[in-house]
Amino acid sequence: MSLESFEASVERSNAIKADFALHPQNYRMLTGDRPTGRLHLGHYFGSIKNRVYLQDLGVQTNILIADYQVITDRDTTEHIQDNVYNMVLDYLAAGVDPEKTTIYVHSQIPACNQLMLPFLSLVSEAELLRNPTVKAEQEASGHELTGLLLTYPVHQACDILFCKANIVPVGKDQLPHIELTRLIARKFNNRYGKVFPEPEGILSDAIEIPGLDGRKMSKSYGNSIMLGASAEETEKLIKKSQTDAERKIYYDKENRPGVSALLTTASLCSGVSVEDIADEIGEAGSGALKAYVIRAVNTFLEPHRQRRNELSKDMDYIKDVIHDGNNRARKVADETLNEVLEAMGMVY
Ligand code: TRP
Question: Exposed, middle or buried by CB within 10 Å (0-12, 13-18, 19+), for 250?
Answer without folding.
Answer: middle
